[in-house]
Every structure is written in C-alpha cells, then in structure tokens.
Write a structure and sequence with these properties.
Helix content is 54%, strand content 5%. It has 279 residues and is mainly alpha-helical. It has a three-stranded antiparallel sheet. α6 (179-200) packs across α8 (234-240). One of its GO terms (cellular component) is mitotic spindle. InterPro entries: SKA1, SKA1_MBD_sf.
Length: 279
C-alpha cells in the first residue's frame, strides 16, 4: 500500500471495508453449503481478517504520525510567533532610528618613533578667550569627525545633540522645536563653518576680487578675543547656509548655547557664534 495523500489512503480503506462487507455476506450463505466449500470460505475469511489486522496496524501508524506532526506544528507556530515579535521589534527600531547620530573617533594606533614628538604634542596649545567666555575650539584642534582617508574639513565641526541633551533643555526654551530640527540646524551651521574657513585657507594671491573682498570682511570681524577661535556671524549664516535669522533660528542658537555647542563673543558691532570644545 503506497498512498501519496490522505484521499488515496481513505479510498484504500473504503475499498477494503467494502470487500469485507461483501465477504461477510457471502460467509453467511456458506453455512448451508457442503464441507469443502465451507473450508474454502474459512480460508478466505482468515485472509480477510489478516487484512483487517494489517489495516488496524496502518491506522495506528497513521495516528502516531498525526500526533507527531501535531507536535511539530505546535513548535512551528511558537517559532512563528517569536519571529513575528522579532520582526515587529526590528521594524519599530528601523522606523525610529534618529537621522543624526553622534560620531566618535577611534583611538589612533599609530606609534611615533622614539625621539620624535607626536602630532598631538606639537599641536599649539589652546588660547584662552577673554574673561567671561567658555573655552572654544582653537585653530589647529584635530576634528574628531574626520575618519579614514577622507579629507578633513577646514575647521572642526559641531557635534550633534544627543537625545538626552535635547530632553534636558527646559521646555520654555525649546517650545515645540523637535530633536530632528535641532540637528538639522547643526548641519546647516557646519556647512557655514566649512564654507567660511575653506575660503579663509585659500592663498590670497590666488583669490579673485569677490573672494578677496569677502576675505577682508571676514578678517575685519576678528578681534583679540577671537584669536584661534572658529566663529560665525549672522551674515555668514545667511550666506553659507539655508537658515534665515528668524525667531526660530535664534531660538535654536540659544538652545545650542545652552547645550554647550556655541558661545557668544560680542564686540565691534558683531555677535559672533563660536564653537565650544566638548571633547
């Protein structure tokens, strides 16, 4: 008996039972027959009973297989439920990954030869600002955002705010501003810093008239308090970023000062927004 489906197995049992029913009916007629015919009928009945035993064994085997498969199916359902929970968790994580993540620099494994000073040892010491100003990023400071062989930016870049930092900002200060908006402003300010100090690093002899005029304007904005400090004024922000000096932008600048990303340096008719060293 080779059945490829339950339908074929059911058909097989149906045929066997039909034959048994017919044989029992014939057996009842053999009671009045002669002895030789009765003997042949008894042998046929023995054969039929053997088939019944075989069918019983097959049914027992099928029941055991069904029980085993039911156990396997239960295990599969449990695995499916765990996978569904995992997929929902992954989808939630994917949908809530912040668009801005802090970048940390890996410690350099380069060892300086004996007798030579490392680059860090030869870097100029930070120049303190005037009294009342927190320590800002100094010229010559290594930018932690540059990685691998990628050309470093012409100046350090402002670090993104973390979720905890943003959550710690008083409600009255941030109002309805969102975490994503705050780090978008950080991106725009970094664009302005990069554009300004890229211009400042160009050799003056290679500048065109427009660049030279802008360079002179930028130099006039410097003072003794800004020596070695990277800063922007409002005109820089409007020229080199998509930000407008609206009430909302000024609120973000206040928020960044509160979080220790910027400090103000006033004087000479300018309000300068200087980078603060946080690493």
């Amino acid at each position: 008996m080779d059945s490829r489906s339950f339908e074929e197995l059911s058909q097989h049992f149906t045929e066997k039972l039909s034959r048994l029913t017919e044989s029992l009916a014939i057996q009842s007629c053999l009671d009045s027959a002669d002895e030789e015919i009765q003997e042949e009928g008894d042998q046929s009945m023995l054969s039929l009973w053997q088939q019944v035993d075989d069918l019983t064994a097959v049914l027992t085997l099928v029941k055991n297989k069904c029980t085993d498969q039911r156990t396997v199916l239960t295990s599969v359902d449990e695995v499916k439920e765990r996978l569904s929970t995992l997929v929902r968790g992954v989808q939630h994580t994917h949908s809530n990954i912040p668009s801005h993540l802090p970048v940390t620099s890996a410690p350099s494994s380069h060892q300086s030869p004996v007798g030579e000073k490392s680059v860090q040892d030869t870097a100029p010491a930070p120049t303190p600002l005037g009294s009342g100003h927190p320590q800002c990023v100094q010229a010559g400071t290594k930018n932690v955002s540059s990685v691998g062989n990628k050309r470093p930016p012409p100046c350090p870049l402002m670090e993104y705010l973390t979720v905890d930092e943003f959550d710690d900002v008083p409600k009255y200060m941030k109002g309805r501003l969102s975490y994503q908006q705050a780090n978008t402003v950080v991106d725009e300010l970094n664009k302005a810093f990069t554009a300004k100090y890229k211009l400042m690093k160009i050799k003056k002899s290679t500048m065109n008239d427009s660049q030279r005029k802008r360079w002179d304007t930028l130099k006039m904005q410097e003072s003794k308090d800004t020596k070695g400090v990277f800063f922007l004024v409002e005109d820089d922000i409007k020229e080199w970023s998509s930000l407008k000096m609206s009430k909302e932008t000024r609120t973000f600048l206040t928020l960044l000062r509160h979080c220790g990303r910027l400090c103000e340096i006033r004087g000479g008719g300018h309000v300068r927004y200087a980078l603060i060293e946080i690493y």
